[in-house]
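Subject — a protein and its fold
Encoding — discrete vocabulary of local shapes:
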Amino acid sequence: MFLYLGHSKNLICVYFTYLLSYSELCGTVQEILDHDSSNYNALVFEGFAREGLHQPVLALAVYRKASSLEPNQSLAWQACVTRRLDI
């Protein structure tokens, strides 16, 4: 897997050449969140990974946290609404 982390105060870009597993994505995202716990993109990726690991309640909590940090960004809100319909 290829991983690039571009650091700035509000953004860490994550590029994957390929994804081996959801648990690996979750671990990588957790490393990012250890450095910047309020990183919107990392939280959205964690929500996606939690969905892939069949943890919808945890995914919803992560999406809620992301949407509360960046209320004008729609990606976490859309995922939040979708998960609410599935739970």
